[in-house]
Amino acid sequence: MVNLSILGSTGSIGKSTLDVVKKHPSSFKVIALAVKNNIKDLEKQARVFRPKLVSVWDQVKSEQLKRCLKGTKIKVLSGENGLLNVATIENSDRVVFALSGTQGLGALLEAIRNKKDIAIANKELIVIAGHIIKKAILKYNVKFVPIDSEHSAIFQCLEGNKRKYLKRIIITASGGPFIDCTKRQLEKVKLKDALNHPRWKMGKKITIDSATMMNKGLEVIEASHLYDININNIDVVIHRESIIHSLVELIDGSLMAQLSMTDMRFPIIYALTYPERIATKFSRPDLVNTGKLSFEAPNFKKFPCLGLAYSAGKTGCTMPIVLNAANEIAVDSFLHKKVSFLKIPSIIKAVMKKHPVKKIYSSEDIYKIDSWARGEALKLCLA
Q1: Which residues have a Cβ under 8 Å from the Cβ of 336 and sit 6 or more positions away?
Q2: Which residue, 381, 372, 369, is CA-closest to 127?
Q3: Is the pTM for the entire model greater than 0.90?
Q4: How far apart are the C-alpha atoms of 316 and 149, rounded to whole Å?
Q5: Which of 273, 282, 288, 382 is nearest to 336 (CA)?
Q6: Contact predicate 83/57, CB 8 Å
Q7: I need a surface site. Which of 2, 28, 125, 253 has the fewest CB within 10 A?
Q8: Rounded to an integer, what distance in angstroms lies between the CA atom of residue 188 and that of residue 27?
Q9: Domains, in order of start, for the chain
Q10: What is the pLDDT along the chain (383 residues), one digit of tens a residue?
Q11: Rounded to 5 degrees, what are φ and ψ at 193?
C-alpha cells in the first residue's frame, strides 16, 4: 500500500492519478489533496477518497469547503501553509506534483527535505529551478520520477543503463493541431482551434503550449536537468502516431524506445509504483493496426517557441525562468483573447531580449526574476 499526497488533484493529471487509485484500491491510498480553487471537484474527491487533509489556495474558498465538508473528519487548510502541509503530511510515502505553472516550488523542496518520494508532472518547476531541485534530491536521497509521458519514457529506457552510456535523447512530439498549417493559416488561429489537440486531452495551458510547441521546448530543458545531458544532445522529432513517447541513443549506437497508448495513466502508475510494476488492464498498442510509425523534423520557423526554448536552455542561469514566466503570461492572455496566437512567441522573445542574464543562488532569486518577467510580459500583452 502506497500512501499518496496529490497537489493539483482536480487537473487532468490529478484526476487521472485518482482514477489509477480507484482501479487499484489495494495498492494506493490517498491521504491528502491540494488544489488552486476548484472546490466543487475537490469536495467530490474528498467524499470518495476520504483523505485526512485537503487544501485550497484561496482562503475564502477554503472556508466554503469547510462548510461543505462539515461533519466529516477531513481537515481543510489554505494558501502556502496548506500546500506545505499536504506535501509533508505524516505517513505520506509519495507526493504527486500535478499543479500547473510555478506554484508549488516551496512545497516541492519541503517535501524533498522531509524525504518524501516525488512523482512530478510539473515540468515548469524543473525548468526554473532544476539545479536547486537536483541538489536537494541528492542531499536527501529521495526517488524523483517524472510523470510526463516523454520523460517517463526516457527514465524507463535508461533503467539498467549507466548514465555514462547515454549519448543522445530524442523527444517525440505529436505536432499538435497546427502541424500542417501554413504561416498564413496560423495568423487566423482561433482559441477553440488551439484547444483542439488531436491526440491528448490536457488542461488549457499545456494544450496551448503543445500548439505552439513550447511544451517540447520546456521538455528539452527539463531533460537536460533530469538526465545531466548537454542540451545540444537533445533532439525533438515529430511522431504523429504518439505511440513512441521518447527514445535514447547509447554510445554504442543502440536506440531504445518506450511505447504505449496515449493514456497518461501509464506514466502515472509507473511513477507511483517505481521501482516496482503492477499489472493493469489499460489498452495496449496494436502495432499491426497502427500500420506505421512516422518521424519528421520540426519546423522551427513555423513554431519559434521551440527555438526560443533551446536558446534559453543553452544560455542557462536565469533565462529559462524568463522564458517560462513570459510564456505563462502570453498564453494566459491568449486564453482570454487579449493577444493573437502568433503574438505568444513575439512577447516571449521581447522579454528574453530585454533580460540581463544572472546566476541563481536561491529560491528568492527565482521568485524575483519570475516576477520581473511576468510584469514585462504583461505590459506587452496590454500594449
Answers
A1: none
A2: 369
A3: yes
A4: 24
A5: 382
A6: yes
A7: 253
A8: 48
A9: 2-142 (3.40.50.720), 148-264+288-314 (no CATH), 316-383 (1.10.1740.10)
A10: 999 999 999 999 999 999 999 999 999 999 999 999 999 999 999 999 999 999 999 999 999 999 999 999 999 999 999 999 999 999 999 999 998 778 889 999 999 999 999 999 999 999 999 999 999 999 999 999 999 999 999 999 999 899 999 999 999 999 989 999 998 899 899 999 899 887 777 788 989 999 999 999 999 999 999 999 999 999 999 999 999 999 999 999 999 999 999 899 999 999 999 999 999 988 898 889 888 999 999 999 999 999 999 999 999 999 999 999 999 999 999 999 999 999 999 999 999 999 999 999 899 999 999 999 999 999 999 98
A11: -70, -40
Place of cell 548537454: 230
Q: Return the amino acid letter for 211.
A: A
Locate 78 and state its grid cell. 489554505
C-alpha cell at 186: 496560423
Q: Which amino acid is at 358?
A: K
